[in-house]
Amino acid sequence: MAKKIPMRQCIGCGEMKSKKELLRILRTAEGDILLDATGRKNGRGAYLCCSKECLSRAIKTKGLERSFQMKIPPEVYGRLEREFEEINGK
Question: What is the phi/psi pair of residue 84, to 5°?
Fold first, then answer.
């Protein structure tokens, strides 16, 4: 029997993709927002494609705020953009 591939929806473009293709953004119990490169940390996760456009779209449409049900300060978005660039090597 074939192993089931976990699918997740990108909060930027809305596309369903396999979990491995997406980056996980995490809200910890303390309310911190960070990029979870391992995909295994504890907390509420939201997923994004590995493209800058999806991150920009998620920021513009407040996709992260909806996913985490909280207001997200602009400096957190700035930090996420920097971490995103480091991971993608751009």
Answer: -60, -45
Q: What is the pLDDT of residue 9?
A: 96
pTM of the model: 0.86
Q: Which of 79, 59, 77, 65 is nearest to 12 (CA)?
A: 59
DSSP character string of 41-75: SSSEEEEE-SSHHHHHHHHHTTHHHHHHTS---HH
Look at residue 3 and give its three-state secondary structure.
Answer: coil
Whole-number average pLDDT of the chain: 90
Neighbours of 46 (CB within 10 A): 23
Q: Taking a C-beta distance cutoff of 8 angstroms, is the pair 46, 63 a contact?
A: yes
What fold characterizes domain 7-88?
A: Hypothetical Cytosolic Protein; Chain: A; (3.30.1230)
Which one, of 65, 67, 70, lies nearest residue 31 by Cα?
Answer: 70
Q: Domain residues of the chain, as ranges?
A: 7-88
Tokens 């456009």 found at: 53
